Amino acid sequence: MLSLKFHDDGLIPVIVQDKKTRDVLMMAYANEEAVHFTRTTGFAHYYSRSRKKLWKKGEESGHFQRVTRILVDCDDDCLIYEVEQTGAACHTGYRSCFFRTIDDITIGEKIFDPEKVYGKNRH
Q: When you count CB atoms within 10 A of the terminal residue's CB, does the N or C end of the chain come out lower?
């Protein structure tokens, strides 16, 4: 296995791509433990910088990511998780976190209402 280069904060960026459509679904961060759990369980795990804890994608929403392959960039400091996405990837309810243009035009598909899943206090 390659020796990954985690940043000074112990994190490595992870780009998440749909295995079938090749759409970029989201970008998150993982620490060594998250990468380990992703590899051993087959489901995407990340490190939440705001909550300062490990999390499994879908643990609250039911919108899991089954990881089919992990790619490493040429510098060993960024990952791509190729996934089979259940439901939506974005906590705002959209299929992808990249659901709007820089001119704030919505181009993505909304899959669920985040207030019904997470409550009103979640951003």
A: N
